[in-house]
Amino acid sequence: MRKYEITYIAHPDLDADAFKQLNDQVQGWVKDNGGTVEKADVWGKRKMAYPIKKQTEGQYVLLYVHMEPAGTGQLERQFGLQESVLRFMIVAADETEEKVAA
User: Fold this and answer.
1) CA 46 to CA 33: how far, in whole Å?
2) DSSP one-letter code for 95
3) Can you tell me the distance from the alpha carbon of 98 to that of 15, in angstroms, rounded to the nearest whole number?
4) At a CB cut-off of 8 Å and minimum separation 6, what does 81 contact?
5) CA 18/CA 94 separation, integer angstroms
6) Which pLDDT tens digit goes with each residue over 72-86?
């Protein structure tokens, strides 16, 4: 299992219930691919540097997860099919930070 950071920007017009449902759905995708969510950090609505799909704001979320590298492809596919997600990024977390802190 590797550590990943998943950042995604949700549509700014989602109400609180729809936004919570989307977050639960994304965390469910991680679990369905054999991963675990360590921490979910909701940044809230922020102004973007440039418009994406004619939107100037978005609701930002950062997830810290452990999952197998093979699961990232399926996760990317699911993000691409979700209309309420404007952008997403999945990166492998740098594990050297933990070793330096220890």
Assistant:
1) 29
2) T
3) 36
4) none
5) 32
6) 999 999 999 999 999
Taken in order of first residue, the domains within the chain and their CATH numbers are 2-94 (3.30.70.60)
Question: Looking at the whole model, is its pTM more than 0.70?
Answer: yes
Q: 3-class SS at 70?
A: coil
CA distances in angstroms from 27 to 31, 57, 71, 98, listed in the order given: 6, 23, 13, 24
Of 90, 96, 102, 82, give the one whose Cα is nearest residue 14. 82
pLDDT tens sequence across 8-50: 999 999 999 999 999 999 999 999 989 999 999 999 999 999 9
Q: How many CB atoms lie within 10 A of CB 65?
A: 26
DSSP letter for 20, please.
H
- Residue 90 CA from chain centroid, whole number: 7
HSE on the CB side for 61, CA within 13 Å?
Answer: 25
Smallest Cα–Cα separation from 27: which of 92, 79, 83, 97? 79
